[in-house]
Amino acid sequence: MQPATWNTLPEDLQLILSREALRRAAETLAEHAELLAEEMDRGTLTDRGGPDALRLFAAVVRATNEDNFGPVGHA
Fold first, then answer.
1. Does 48 fall in a domain?
2. Domain, as residue range, for 23
3. Closest CA to 33 of 9, 14, 59, 13
4. Residue 64 predicted with pLDDT over 50
5. Number of domains in the chain
6. Looking at the domain assignment, is residue 8 inside a domain?
7. Is 58 part of a structural domain of the chain?
8. Least buried of 1, 21, 55, 69, by fewest C-beta within 10 Å?
9. Cα(first)–Cα(last) distance of the chain, in Å?
């Protein structure tokens, strides 16, 4: 049996998979922003006024993600 290609998947499944991919991407961005902020707090990376801005960015990414995409499987 051949694996399904994107175009052969039902539209509702494409939507579910797309939303989950966007949710994971947003969470990855938020986690990286927090990691960078922690590194700046520790002095590992040069602080150029970024830790608080990165934490704010992480919070905005998460809040936007929750509002726009909703939970997976509820397209």
1. yes
2. 13-69
3. 59
4. yes
5. 1
6. no
7. yes
8. 1
9. 28
